[in-house]
């Protein structure tokens, strides 16, 4: 927005402009009780669209700051903030109340300095809401008497305590420029409350965050698709979406909110788990793929509180989506929760892209025949490394197990090449020697069906 003409100091009727795309926002008249906002189109026609209720009388001046209309009231030395996007328009002309209680501009002290022989004079307070002020658009205030020019800014952190409705607060913050850390502080604040009925508030906050998150993901996906369709059509069609601070993704929530929240000792583990599942529920509602580290956080919390029955149910009913990292985490829990081993294998089987991982898991547990049966069931027996299985069978110290596995691969060689011998490239010479030592040369040449 470009600075427009200055306003007369403290008039009862003023004009300002803020350009937005193809139309101009004009607070046309400020009367004793209300401010009328007009939409001015390029063709020159104006349409009354909003009325700002000032609820007071006297002289006013006006700025546009961070998509907010700020109305300064001279006699009370306070400013009113209006967010006309905070409510959905329901008629041709919409009436708005201040979104926040009236507040004064933060005091400012003007530094003064005298001659070198005179000690430095202390700063003196700036006279706020002075009759010598001139207001320029969008966010400039000039004090003619003091010779200072200021840019007006909105401090977001205090709004956290001024707006009690957390849903409305999130709507307000999500439209501001420097909102990220303030939003994160709000998330931490709502998680401090464990009272009955606080979980719906948490759900509302998560849903509002993920709605913006989803819109950004869709815009990014649309842009990527346009680029892939060809530069001639894609580049001209749209610009790359800008990721604003309002986009709070899963990594942000995990790093700044959820990971520290799960470590708190003063919070009920039931509430912690409910919050984690509520965030996952919200992601699923907006069809956002849940990252595995969020599931890992849920599992870690369940294990720390010995809630293995709940973990089993979450996995059984696919509340936690299957993934290789999650399966590996379950494997690491076997010493604490033995059924986790089978739960991990079941998950890997459902993935259908983790056959190698399943074989490695079974071999690491010396379940060599189980690994052999599995690789046959998925049709991978002809391509699997014989040495890997023979190594694992030999490490068990079970001679009959080694005999069975060795015979199995001899039969594979016979079927594939018409000869039971191993190729040099399979590097099984030491196992052939070991077989001869255990069962003799004659047994080596008589492979049987396994």
Automatic annotation (TrEMBL):
Domain of life of the native organism: Eukaryota
Domain spans labelled Mic1: 176-423
Listed Pfam families: RMC1_C
InterPro entries reported for this sequence: RMC1 (IPR040371), RMC1_C (IPR009755)
Protein name: Regulator of MON1-CCZ1 complex
The species this protein was found in: Ilyodon furcidens (goldbreast splitfin)
């Amino acid at each position: 927005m470009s600075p427009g003409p200055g306003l007369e100091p403290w008039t009862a009727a003023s004009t300002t402009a803020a350009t937005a795309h193809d139309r101009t926002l004009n607070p046309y008249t400020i009367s004793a009780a209300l401010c009328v906002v007009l939409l001015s189109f390029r063709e020159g026609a104006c349409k009354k669209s909003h009325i700002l209720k000032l609820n007071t009388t006297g002289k006013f001046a006006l700025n546009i700051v961070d998509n907010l209309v700020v109305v300064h009231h001279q006699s009370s030395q306070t400013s009113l903030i209006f967010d006309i996007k905070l409510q959905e328009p329901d008629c041709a002309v919409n009436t708005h109340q201040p979104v926040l209680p009236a507040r004064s501009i933060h005091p400012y002290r003007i530094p003064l300095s005298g001659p070198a022989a005179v000690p430095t004079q202390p700063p003196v307070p700036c006279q706020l809401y002075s009759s010598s002020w001139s207001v320029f658009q969008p966010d400039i205030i000039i004090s003619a008497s003091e010779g200072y020019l200021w840019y007006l800014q909105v401090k977001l952190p205090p709004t956290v305590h001024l707006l009690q409705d957390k849903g409305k607060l999130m709507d307000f913050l999500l439209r501001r420029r420097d909102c990220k850390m303030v939003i994160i502080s709000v998330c931490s604040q709502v998680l401090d409350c464990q009272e009955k009925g606080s979980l719906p508030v948490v759900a509302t906050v998560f849903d509002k965050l993920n709605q913006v998150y989803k819109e950004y993901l869709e815009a990014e996906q649309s842009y990527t698709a346009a680029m892939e369709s060809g530069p001639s059509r894609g580049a001209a069609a749209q610009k790359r979406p800008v990721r604003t601070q309002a986009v709070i993704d899963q990594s942000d929530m995990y790093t700044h909110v959820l990971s520290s929240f799960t470590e708190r000792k003063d919070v009920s583990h039931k509430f912690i788990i409910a919050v984690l599942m509520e965030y996952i529920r919200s992601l699923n509602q907006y069809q956002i793929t849940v990252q595995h580290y969020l599931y890992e956080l849920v599992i870690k919390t369940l294990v720390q509180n010995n809630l293995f029955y709940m973990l089993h149910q979450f996995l059984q009913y696919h509340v936690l989506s299957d993934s290789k990292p999650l399966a590996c985490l379950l494997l690491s829990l076997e010493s604490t929760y033995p059924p986790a081993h089978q739960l991990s294998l079941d998950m890997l089987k459902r993935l259908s892209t983790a056959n190698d991982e399943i074989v490695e898991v079974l071999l690491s547990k010396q379940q060599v025949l189980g690994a052999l049966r599995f690789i046959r069931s998925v049709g991978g027996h002809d391509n699997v490394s014989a040495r890997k299985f023979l190594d694992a069978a030999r490490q068990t110290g079970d001679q009959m197990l080694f005999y069975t596995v060795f015979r199995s691969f001899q039969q594979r060689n016979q079927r594939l090449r018409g000869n039971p011998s191993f190729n040099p490239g399979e590097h099984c010479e030491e196992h052939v020697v070991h077989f001869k030592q255990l069962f003799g040369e004659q047994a080596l040449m008589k492979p049987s069906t396994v």
